[in-house]
Amino acid sequence: MILIQAIIQPIRLSTVRSALQDAGYPETMVSDALGYGRQRGQTATFRGNEYRIDLLRKVILELVVDDEDLDEAIAIIRSAAKTGSQGEIGDGKIFAIPVAEAITI
């Protein structure tokens, strides 16, 4: 089993969740997060003053899949989470982490 952690833009969450559910991956967990990667934050203007937003809002979507489903699940997340035709800086990251055991409570 593999734990997939996808850090994506909040505006893409519903699209990614719908795509995963349609493909047969309905079990997900979602958390709010703040951070930045290569885009290094954003600059904004408020009442004529310019200021820098260092930490951008993101969401972390997590799901556990069987080893043989990893490539399919990652492809679904990548295609649903990217903005534009090629994707943009800030669209997110996907991590695949081995899971030794899953225990139902």
TrEMBL record:
Protein name in UniProt: Nitrogen regulatory protein P-II 1
Gene3D superfamilies according to UniProt: 3.30.70.120
Residues where O-UMP-tyrosine is found: 51
Keyword Glycoprotein part of the UniProt annotation: no
Record-level GO BP terms: regulation of nitrogen utilization
Xref: InterPro entries: N-reg_PII (IPR002187), N-reg_PII-like_a/b (IPR011322), N-reg_PII/ATP_PRibTrfase_C (IPR015867)
Gene source species: Aporhodopirellula rubra
Superkingdom as given in the UniProt entry: Bacteria
Record PANTHER family: NITROGEN REGULATORY PROTEIN P-II (PTHR30115), NITROGEN REGULATORY PROTEIN P-II HOMOLOG (PTHR30115:SF11)
UniProt keywords, alphabetically: Phosphoprotein
MF GO annotations: ATP binding; enzyme regulator activity
